Amino acid sequence: MTERTRSRVQAAEMSFLRRVAGLSLRDRVRSSAIQEELGVESLLLRVERSQMGWLGHLVRMPPGRLPGEVFRACPSGRRPPGRPRTRWRDYVSRLVWERLGIPPDELEEVAGEREVWASLLRLLPRDPTPDKRSDKVTVHFINRDGDKITVKGSPGESLLDVVINEDLDIDGFGACEGTLACSTCHLIFEDDVFKKLGRITDEEMDMLDLAYGLTDTSRLGCQVCLSKSLDGLVAKVPESVADARQSQDG
Ligand code: FES
Predict the structure, then answer these.
(1) Residues with C-beta less than 6 Å from any ligand 1 atom
(2) How many CB atoms sit inside 10 A of residue 24's CB?
(3) Which segments constitute the 2Fe-2S ferredoxin-type domain (predicted)?
């Protein structure tokens, strides 16, 4: 699962859970606190657990069963055009390494023990690994009034997550809670940072077109995910904000 997909799943899930809890972004309650209050496990945690559960099945599958044979096959050469850049096997090995601390060369041995594997999956930590958390990225927001706010976020978090988690006072920011329906998370970046932000999807482009004060280096904060290479980035909040939902309703 790419960081972008993770971020979108999280945004959709939290938008739903906030409504169930009778809260909105303006209440500035952390996502983890809402999940705890409702007693629900995060969707990503469930997805990861089932991916790792399937990995255990594949590792223990006897020779001759097609899924196991495909998993054990090691094709070489270039991937055909249009295929994902990362193979599922590489993705899931890295996931196990990050979440359970099991290195790839021990993976088959550990996952081969059904009971051990099942108990490890039950103990899967709710949060990303401590390494990931300590690897914080510094972000500077320039607010509408020109004030500079400096905070830290984790790799993989979107700039909207950072605003919520750090309880930043940015008026009207993130009204649709990251579901690409409002454009209130419009941010302007410096040229060199903008080039590092990755591809803009058509959906983001459509929403950006409805933002006030659009520039050549504008992006939507809910679609920009942090990575170490963005450490120290400056994101300027435009002076005016447009909520695309109101323009469409009106
Ligand atoms: S929060 Fe609405 S488009 Fe980003």
Answers:
(1) 160, 174-176, 178, 180-185, 207, 220, 222
(2) 13
(3) 137-241
Quote the number of domains for the chain: 2
Exposure string of 127-158, with b = 16+ CB inside 10 Å and e = fewer, is: ebeeeeeeebbebebbeeeeeebebebbbbbb
CB burial of 61-80 (b: ≥16 within 10 Å; e: otherwise) equals beeeeeebeebeeeeeeeee
CB neighbourhood size of 236 (10 A) = 20
Its pTM stands at 0.57
Same domain, 103 and 8: yes
C-alpha 233 to ligand 1 mean position (Å): 20
Q: What's the 142 CA to ligand 1 centre distance in angstroms?
A: 18
Cα angle: 22, vertex 10, 125; to 5 degrees: 105
Q: Which long-range contacts (CB under 8 A, 24 or more apart) does 67-70 make?
A: none
**CA neighbor of 168 nearest in space, from 152, 182, 188, 189:** 152
For the chain, the residue count is 250
Query: Residues 141, 230: one domain?
Result: yes
Domain with 42 in it: 3-74+85-123
Do 225 and 162 contact (CB within 8 A), yes or no? Answer: no
pLDDT tens for 134-160 read 578 999 999 999 999 999 988 778 899
**130 pLDDT exceeds 90?**
no
Q: Measured over all CA atoms, what is the biggest interatomic distance in the chain, rounded to whole angstroms? A: 66
Residues whose CB falls within 8 Å of the CB of residue 213, separated by 6 or more in sequence, listed in order: 186, 188, 238, 239, 240
